[in-house]
Every structure is written in structure tokens, then in C-alpha cells.
Amino acid sequence: MTDKTELIKRYIFLLAGLFVNGLGVSFITKAGLGTSPITSIPYTLSLGFTPTVGMFTLVFNIFLVILQRRNFQLQSLLQLPIIALFSFFIDLTMSLLGFMQPETYAMKVVSLIVGCLILGFGVFMEMVANVAMLPGEATVRAVSDVFSTDFGKTKIAFDSSMTVIAAILSFIMFKHLDGVREGTIVAAILVGFIARLFKKYIGGIEKILIS
Q1: Are 159 and 123 in contact, with CB atoms under 8 Å apart?
Q2: How far apart are CA 211 and CA 207, in angstroms?
Q3: From the DSSP assignment, how many helices (H) and strands (E) are in the chain?
């Protein structure tokens, strides 16, 4: 198989992964217990203004790309069409899941866990494709490179910061906490763990689908 053919297959796999990521984010959001940390600011803003969570996600992630200027490379421009697709998939899947309105707390928790599983698998697909990163992860990498910090610890600090900022915005706009709840914390803990489990147990799928 030529390198060009393999690269095309990787981008196709990344495209599928972006859809799965969008579905996972929407599933978590529809659970009604908050949303994923990286989406917490766009989602909170969408609760108070007309633009959709996908639109706010696009604008917010363009801002993250700009923040990477000290570590910016030509390949970084690939983040722009990727985040555009990701944002579109969030709005698309939010619409597709319009029927989803879990009423009991138990059903909300089940929906949250299913969403974390979906998003974890989407992150795993992004890892397998290995051709580009979403701006959130790329920003964390840029910060860790510039300040020589551990990527994992920087990721935790970054997600925590996004959650805190979203909570502050919520109190400013609504005078109470909205958009950030216990599900945000659960997603922050579970999604990365689930992605690593997929990588550990079915990581060999890369040889079958990509190589």
C-alpha cells in the first residue's frame, strides 16, 4: 500500500472519529448533568445566546488555535477544517438526539456513561488516525512544549481551567450554576481512561484498518 493511500485512509478514519466525538459530546450534554470540559465554555454560552453550541465551539477553538502561535506550524492550519467539521457534527448530533430527554437521575447517569463511552471511542479513533489533533489537545501540547511540563498534568490543568471559567460565566449570566455539573467532572475522569482502554485492548485495529 502506498503512503498516499494510507494517508487517505487515516483521514477518512479521522473524519469518522470526529463524528463519533461529536455524538459523544452531544450524548453527554443531553444527559442533563453538564457537558465535557472542553465543551463547557461553548455550551454555557449557548445557553444564554442565540448561536448554537457547535457555533460557539467553532469560535472558541479558533481562539485556541490563535493561542498556539508560539508553537505554530503549517500543519497547525489543519485544525481549522477539522474543528469546523467537529462543530458541525456537534450541532448535527444534538439535532438527531432532540428526542433524548432522560427524566430520572438514574437515566441521566446511564446516558452520561454511554456518552463517555462514545466520546472515549472517538478520542481513540483520533489517536489511531494519528494525522491531526483537535485544537484542545493541540493547545495542551503547545503549552507543555513551551513550558516543558508533562502533557498529562497540563491536560488536567487545562480541563480544570475550562470548567472553572464556564462555571464563572454561568454565575455571571444566570446567577446560578448551569451547564457545568457533576457530569463534567465524570467526563473529565472517564473519557481519557476509556480511550486508553480501547487503545490497550483493540489498538491492533490500526494494522487492519489503516496500514
Answers
A1: no
A2: 5
A3: 9, 0
**Which residue in 90, 75, 60 sits closest to 133, CA to CA?**
75
Using one digit for the tens of pLDDT, what is the confidence trace for 50-80? 899 999 999 999 988 887 776 666 566 788 8
Distance CA 38, CA 41 (A): 7
* DSSP annotation of 210: T
C-alpha cell at 18: 470526529
What are the pLDDT digits (tens) for 107-128? Answer: 999 999 999 999 999 988 888 8
Q: How far is CA 204 from CA 130, 136, 171, 200, in A?
A: 14, 26, 46, 9
- 56 grid coordinates: 460557539
Q: What angle do helix axes 135-147 and 53-67 make, rounded to 10 degrees?
A: 20
Write out the three cell numbers for 193. 481512561
Using CA atoms, how far apart are residues 55 and 66, in angstroms rounded to an integer? Answer: 17
Q: Model pTM? A: 0.88
Residues 6+ apart with CB under 8 A from 156: 188
